[in-house]
Amino acid sequence: MGAKPYIVELDQVDDGAQLQDALYEISQQSTVPNIFIRDSGKGGDNGHIGGNDKLQAKRAELPKLLKNAGAI
């Protein structure tokens, strides 16, 4: 699809544990991957999708989500 993802490997950055804690506060999800696709037209929505299973469930919507986010 040519999307431009921003990926953070939590086990490879100095503040990975703190980032994971912050992501939990935002999403109530402690596992990874923790996927966000922000829709630029939704205002305050943080764009949390969930894990890979949730992303796969949105497969049909993915092109629209990525386009709205400016990722493709």
Largest sheet geometry: 2 strands, antiparallel
- Percent strand equals 5-15%
Global mean pLDDT: 89
| Cα gyration radius (Å) | 13 Å
Q: Structural class given helices, strands, pairing?
A: mainly alpha
The overall strand count is 2
Based on Cα principal axes, name the global outline: globular
Structure notes:
- This protein is mainly alpha-helical.
- It is about 35% helix and about 5% strand.
- The protein contains three helices and two strands.
- It has helices at about 15-25, 50-55, 60-70, and strands at about 35, 50.
- Strands 1-2 form a two-stranded antiparallel ribbon.
- The protein is globular, with a radius of gyration of 13 Å.
- The mean pLDDT is about 90.
Topology:
Layout lengths: L15 H12 L7 E2 L11 E3 L1 H6 L4 H7 L4
Antiparallel strand pairs: 1-2
Based on the model shown, name its key terms.
mainly alpha, 72 residues, 3 helices, 2 strands, 35% helix, globular, two-stranded antiparallel sheet
Question: What is the compact description of this entry?
Answer:
Helix content is 35%, strand content 7%. The chain has 72 residues and is mainly alpha-helical.
